Amino acid sequence: MEYILETHNLEKRYKNFKAISNLNMHIPKGAIYGLIGKNGAGKTTLIRVICGLQKPTSGTYSIYGIENTNKKIDKVRKRMGAIVELPAIRLEATAEDNLKEQFKIVGLPNYDNLHELLKLVGLTKTGKKKAKNFSLGMKQRLGIAIALVGNPDFLILDEPINGLDPEGIIEIRELILRLNKEKKITFLISSHYLDELSKIATEYGFLDKGKIIKEISKQELEQSSKKRIEIKVSNIKECVKYLEENNYSYEVISDEIINIYDVVNISKLAVELSKRNCIIKGFDEKEESLENYYINLIGGNSNV
Ligand code: ATP
User: If you take atom 31 of ligand 1, which residue's CA is the nearest one?
Assistant: First the structure.
């Protein structure tokens, strides 16, 4: 697997307090990596360290395989764009002037793809309107356009939908998906909004008390949280035989519990099984959301 970003026992201490410690994360090329963690888990600290805004106290990270201790890291960093906390926008300037400013900062001699960028984020029609008069969603999209100057292929967005209305959230979601699909941009996105994140993320990293406690792909998560009916039966052998004969997708969990992953008419099943000397002693329908998965993982209430 090719990773755009890897961290190795990364640590950032503020005096004696470890905001992140022993942190190991892996962002595969082409992923939309959702970084999940409650307030104070260390998301912003991690992002600031990766962006080079703060130095790690110990441990390392590599971007495109280049370690942060390597001189080439500054060159590699040009391949990434980021919005940390708030987008870097000049409120008194128009969208176009904000972008021009960024072209200069990045050291690009002309404004080659400026209009393409405005089009990409849906801001071609803002003309002379100053950024201070933009909606929050427009400001966020302008921030993304600014982060895209220099054609990065790795974009870091810290809480990109905070404060946005439903329409703004959809626009940002669609923009991220389009950039990922069409421009092959890899994303690291931190968010409190698990439901929203679950609509776009292909990988998840769960951050708790400064550590990544679990990394899981969307497929693995779906596999572990498939809708299922758990049944408890008196005669597991006969039950398995029936499920086999009727092409059900199932998994034997213990010598009396089976998970069925198909739509089941439970009363019909009970009748059929009773003909085979098997009684259903109990059943439970289960479905796990990303939020449930997260709460189970960290134990107790999430506070997200
Ligand atoms: P939030 O979602 O609230 O932004 P977060 O996951 O981004 O939270 P961080 O901002 O990274 O968390 O903070 C992690 C911990 O480090 C917190 O306990 C915070 O108080 C502490 N911290 C962050 N910056 C500093 C600093 N400059 N000095 C001391 N402690 C800090």
Answer: 14
